[in-house]
Amino acid sequence: METAGGKDGEGGSSGVPSGKRDSEGTCPMFHGAVAYGEPCAGAAISPSGPGAPSPLAAAWRRLARNRGAVFGMIVICAMSLAAAGAPVLSPHSYWDGVPGCERLGPRPGFWLGTDLLGRDVLSRMMHGARISLAVGAAATVLSLAIGLTVGLAAGYSAVYSRGLLDAALMRLTDTVYAFPGILLAVGIAAIAEKPSPYIVFIALGLSGWPGIARVTRAETMKIAAAEYVLAARSLGVPTSRILLRHILPNALSPVTVMATLAIGGNILGEAALSFLGLGAEDPYPSWGGMLSEARDHFTVYWWMGIFPGMAIVLTVLAFNVVGDGLRDALDVKSGGASY
Amino acid sequence: MSRLWFFVALWLCMAASFLCLGRSKAAGTAAGAAGLEIQAPGPGEGFLRVPINANPPTLDPTFVVTVVADGIDRRIFNTLVRHSPDESGRSLAIKPDLAESFECSDGGRLYTFRLRPGVKFHTGREVVARDVKWSLERLIFPDGYERLFELDRILGAQEFREAARKWRASLPPGDSVYADWSAAGLGVEGIRAPDKRTVEIELREPFAPFLSLMALTPAAVLPKEEVLRRKSDFGRFPIGTGPFRVAAHEPNSHILLERFDGYFEGPARLKGIFYRVVKENSVALQEYRAGRFDLSPVPMGMLREIKSDPSLSGELSETSGLSTAYLGFNMESGPAAGNVHLRRAMAFAVDREYLCSAILDGAAVPAKGVLPPGIPAYDPELKGQRYDPDAARRELEAAGFPEGKGLPPLRLYYRADGEGRLVCHAIQMQLRRAGIAVDLRPLEWGTFLARTRRGECPIFRLAWVADYPHPHNFLHTLFHSLLAGETNRTRTRDPDIDRLADAALQETDPAKSAELYRAAERRVLELAPWVVLYHGKTNLLIKRYVRGIRGRVTPLDVDTVLPGVDFHKVEMSPDFACAVDR
């Protein structure tokens, strides 16, 4: 109880808590709706009397009880630290090999071995983490921006106008959804004449939004029919304000789960594109690129491929378990009791 | 919690199976391959089983563009002359093939070939001189094989192409290359068939590499009536004079050649050759180990492991690949254009031994000069370019950048995928140690080629593979000022190189011609429009029971299809069974 507020603040990076606090503070209708037991997902049904833990604090506690999610969060934090501190923390240069130290297996000094040019695999992986995490996160933000916009507009128009906009946007979404994501990303990346992480982030971002748009649309339609939204409309609150202040915050929790899972997917996508030579700019390393370089020597110099591969698996797994944990923690009906 | 453990266990299982796969000798028995397995000849049936990495788009020799098609066509067709290893076994020399004798007269302008008697096409018809004339004209015909543009040096070739173009325009659109121009009275003036067994070819001016061109697969002799009758189907089931003919051809799957018993040198000892498409070299190697192929390429980076494996090291065959990898400078613009000392400094700063051993794993030999081993004028004694950090420092000082001070980072362009990438990473490291900063600029292959051709890349890494084994194809094609901006991508314009390359072309004495090419090569190295890097090698695994290939692989053989090897004499040894059991 005592730390709930503080922890809330810390957890604010996901964007959920602040949004929700805002909505609680600014929209009295919100509480009304909850009190009537309206099924508005995301608006956690909770005792909201003074002194009782906020819904977010409760969610956080459920999350903290989930050991898988805690493991995932620790992995993500560790990876982020390694990535952020790579220029300072990495024991060797990522581009310059140590003469005479080519193809060394893991040993003190080169904890994960060296590659064909005598470059330290650990140092390259730490630098590679920058690309993987940054591209994974940035692509997800881009997907979120597109997906949320499309989903909100489509869902709201489906409820309150004749739904032409909804039909148009959803057919567009279906079209993009019909393409295999990685194929679309390869296509976008191939248009650029030289590999670059910016291209990869745009390619993944542009191919990853349809899922988010669909979920957002479904949530929006559900919330838009809620009485507090009706009330806001009847009071003449501008549509943009209704969308941003009343609907978006309440639609965020399933989207948060999706976004967390999408980061993992985008890291995997970045690795795949780098593996195909469309990723990081030479000689900057990326996990997928390291895997690709190691492919021809896998049976002999296994460390060149195993460790970047493990990093990809571990990070994607971490994002997945955190996403699962978030789903359980935010879903009131299951009570987060599955663990 | 249990879910987490499940994930961890699953992951470990995957990692373990991945590792096992790499080691397993029985890998590759996937269900997908089973369908092919039924049709494939088994071991001991007298068929040589060869992996190919891609399906040739056509086997019509006039339009051959891939090494694989070239090699397969070598079994089906013959040319007037062929490249065979000379006495030393290291370089190639011109030997008779369909022509039993040939001579050059009129100061190098007239070539007379005397055809072997009694040579038959697979259809049973005898080869006559008119077939040779028609086949060569087909190469010059407007849609013919453009890599043999040198055939324009034949008297009347350009006039024929112009006339043929006009004549073709009057035809209904469609398969014009399958129309018969000779019936329309068209022909190349300089290619003559005075009688059934004599072919005369007259050139506008002497051209030393001419016989080398006549030995290339596109110059194969074709039966006109079959080409015209089968049209594009000729590309799938071609008819030639060679020791084998096509029995089955399934695109993207396999090509089965069977022995032609009427071959003019006597029937081949093999019953046939079975080519099966396997896209990844590493998969081909696994299947080779499992006994499903008799030949295998050596995947990039596997050489070291194979050499340390006692059962495989004895099956390894290594040969020069007739190629030279290099860093090219744009000689017209850019920081290196007007600064020969900077170019030489870079040539001294690159450690070629390191590139070959560290990255290429012994699949290449360090280069000293432009010509790769196996090319007739190759000079094993050449001093050429070499790694010398002290000399690099001196040259850099002479260039006006002592220890690299004041030198802006140089932009090095290269193909983003492929073996050159790591090589460029290593070159960046090595040049940085010499004080020369390099920015890496990987490009997509098509973009890269277009931009080097337009002269937009100040420094680029490329490799040149000989179109035909003759020094002309290096020292003229890559450095003559006439070709600046075309095949001369560095846009080198040097009167000395031009003069030496032109003089070599006119020289009919091979020894004197070789001396001129060597002088041109030394001039190139002095001018340093290239930093030569390495010459590629062909590494192949050949089963011990296959006789007649090992030791006969020539510098022409860059793939498992071995265009330079005479398969007519290849056989399976009788101790085959025990060899398989091993």
The overall pLDDT average of chain A reads 83
CATH superfamily of the largest domain in chain A: MetI-like
Helical stretch tally of chain B: 19
Q: Give the N-terminus to C-terminus distance of chain A in angstroms.
A: 21 Å
Mean pLDDT of chain B: 87
Which secondary structure elements does this structure contain, and how are they paired or packed?
The complex is a heterodimer of chains A (339) and B (582).
Chain A: H1 4-10, H2 16-26, H3 28-35, H4 55-65, H5 67-84, H6 86-89, H7 121-160, H8 164-178, H9 181-191, H10 197-224, H11 227-234, H12 239-275, H13 287-294, H14 303-330
Helix pairs in contact in A: 1-4, 2-12, 3-11, 4-14, 5-7, 5-14, 7-8, 7-10, 7-12, 7-14, 8-10, 9-10, 10-12, 11-12, 12-13, 12-14, 13-14
Chain B: H1 2-23, H2 31-39, E1 47-52, H3 67-76, E2 81-85, E3 92-96, E4 99-105, E5 110-115, H4 129-140, H5 157-169, E6 191-195, E7 198-202, H6 210-214, H7 224-230, E8 244-250, E9 254-259, E10 272-277, H8 281-289, E11 295-297, H9 303-307, H10 310-313, E12 316-320, E13 323-329, H11 340-349, H12 352-359, E14 364-366, H13 389-398, E15 410-415, H14 420-433, E16 438-443, H15 445-453, E17 459-465, H16 472-475, H17 495-506, H18 510-527, E18 530-542, E19 546-547, E20 571-572, H19 576-581
Parallel strand pairs in B: 1-10, 15-16, 15-17
Antiparallel strand pairs in B: 2-3, 4-5, 5-7, 6-7, 8-9, 9-10, 11-18, 12-18, 13-17, 13-18, 14-18, 19-20
